Amino acid sequence: MYDLKTQIIEQLNLQDKKPEDIGDDEPLFVEGLGLDSIDALELIVLLQQNYKIKLSNAEDGPKVFRSIRTMAEYITEHQGKKV
Amino acid sequence: MFIRALASISPQHTFGADELPSEIVTYHTNRLACIEPDYKAWVDLKMIRRMSRIIKMGVAAASLCLKNAGLEVPDAIVTGSAYGCLEDTGIFLNRMIEFNEEMLNPTAFIQSTHNTVAAQIALSVKCYGYNNTFVHRGFSFESALMDGIMLLKDNDANNVLVGAADEITDISFAILRRFGIYREQEVSNLQLIGEPARGTIAGEGAAFFLLTKEGSPNDCATLDAIHCFYKPDGVEEITSEIDSFLRAQSLAAADMDLVINGQNGDLANDSIYKQLNTMMFAQTPVTQYKHLCGEYPTSSAFALWYATTLIKNGNTGFGAGIDTLSSKPRKILIYNHYKNIHHSLFLVSAC
Amino acid sequence: MNYSDPVVYVAGLGVISAIGNNVPETLAAFSNQQPGMGDITMLDTIHRTQLPVAEVKLNNHELAGLGGMQPTQPRTALLSMVAAREALSDAGISNIDQLRTGFISANTTGGMDLSENFFSEFRKDHKAGNLHDVINHECGTVTDLVADALGVHHYISTISTACSSSANAIFFGARLIRHNMLDLVIAGGTDALTKFTINGFNTLMILDKEFCKPFDENRKGLNLGEGAGYVVLVSEKLLKGLKKKPYATLSGYANTNDAYHQTASSPEGTGSWLAMTGALKRSGLSTGDIDYINLHGTGTQNNDVAEGTAIQRLFAPVFPYMSSTKSFTGHTLGASGSIEAVFSCLAIEHGIIYPNLRFSTQMKELSFMPETKYLSNQPVNHVMSNSFGFGGNCSSLIFSKAGI
Description:
Chain A has 83 residues and is an all-alpha fold. Chain A is 48% helix and 0% strand. Helices cover 33% and strands 19% of the residues of chain B.
């Protein structure tokens, strides 16, 4: 999950954040990290680029990207498969 | 209209300067780059992460202008940019080709739209008012000003934030260079105008102005008139345009305390100005500005900043020609052309 | 309104889009309910056969021939010339060089159709790539090319505010006439399909893989389109000298900013509401006077609910006819405002209400539905046309039958 946090910080250019600042279960969107719809799209690209996971249905986004943990679990489950 | 406040980011120390810098920053290059502020002081941290350089430049200059005007939210925002957001355009294009149209990042695409600077300013101050962006080469800034002036005349706004921003990137410089418009050898910007040759130097900048219809005690200057004309047929027509422009204000060339012109050191480009200097402006002090900011389509915004600041706070030896002025100029004519295609005139006066 | 504004008339119309290369073809397509979407044929992209688009059915050689331009010029310029020339010819004004004539054209793509080809060579080697492909890259250069071909030189400019671009161009042109700076303005916009925009919109995941269903509960996104549309605006004084009856007056206009997000509209449609309200106020009309709304109606989840919510707030409980003609033409981006302005004027001239194609289920948030049938012989006196773009840029135009 540490690596995932680093990747997210880089992908979203969260210049003032370090991996230690992001909680494993902290909400990523709206509250917590406060990401928005464009960030969600960037995270979809991140899944593709780094993990070869293709999330073609944007509506699954909120579930998958709820927190670092949910993202990590999703990646473990789906790595390499097309969803 | 009154210029209540202004701000500029340029290759000179103009950001935050209330008067003309006492020294010109010298460069030995054919590509000038802006001296940029610490953007974190001017742009919301949550927004800054998505912003490319030009957007930061535009938003910072706009923020400083509003601060100088003592205004939190303007009634309207109008910007001009010939090239738009080149960096993001290049990033998206590059990825599109490199990755064969897969796994592309939306941020670069979103931020590449030409009205991003105006939009981000509106977003940062929550301005719901009129918002427009002109992208017409050497007329981009002039069109934005005309739009702002009409809004004020129509009482659709009490104040308008008008500005322009253009950048030069590695890619755009490499491409433009191939068109042979820049000096091949590196040149000192101080010698650019005095030693004309083939080519000029590339520049960039962002400048914003807060315009109002009603005057106030701290206004910097008045923008009395602007005029654009397209592809004139030689110096005679240009002279006629300038003459008509001044006569419409009941003025003549002799009434100008100073002319700031757009000489850029390129022989062909500058021949028009040279002819005017010997004819129409033979008795008028003339100075230049492109050795300070470089050549780019919206450089006239820098010229307007220069003229306004000079009128407001006097000369501190910033430019050739103005150090010989006996007093603070009260009437300045700016005349610039971009590639002898887009010609523009500004009349700026003391309040 | 703050003072007695001079009236600005629409004296000529020109349009080219996926449903027709000129006004008569366009009208026929509407009456036959023939949309212009199909497979990508003009561009070499991996999205061919995957994403429907609404292409103009002429290649660059054909467009250049029609407009008297060069086929090596950007497609955006070629489209622009065809429509601008039609508009000027329609207005029947032959002496534009003796008048204070302006050309205000909008676009978002500029010469990108050619520069994206240049770039694929250039990025490997900075000395590679044909400079002819990039010389007309800028949005403003496309406008200058067409201004030169039309013979307009008195006042020229280009606006680029994403999807509201050409709507803004139209009322900027009108204001130049009102301020007695110009006598006539050819105003509108153009945009061609490019790989850049197809891929860009694809990354936003707002493209429908089927033909779009604007304002439908089950809508899945937009279809990109291309085209150009221009209106010839004239002063009252100039109109008196023309033989023809004007199509309409531009009676209302407004531009506002949503100031909510770079790409998404606020859920309440604040910017949209402010734009429509502002246009109504300027026109002196009330909501009950509007006979038809040409919706921005892209078919995206976000736009349609934001626009719909704003319309609900403003017009309830009585709603005029409304439809999204993007169900025919796709979303023509920078050209959409002016293409739809042309449609609005034609609606007034011919008493037409355009159908909203592929609509079946009312949106749960709204108490109204778009019109699904093509109606003719309708009393159409006042039409509102909406254009809402990225960067929160919201514009609304109102066209009114002349003499009302």
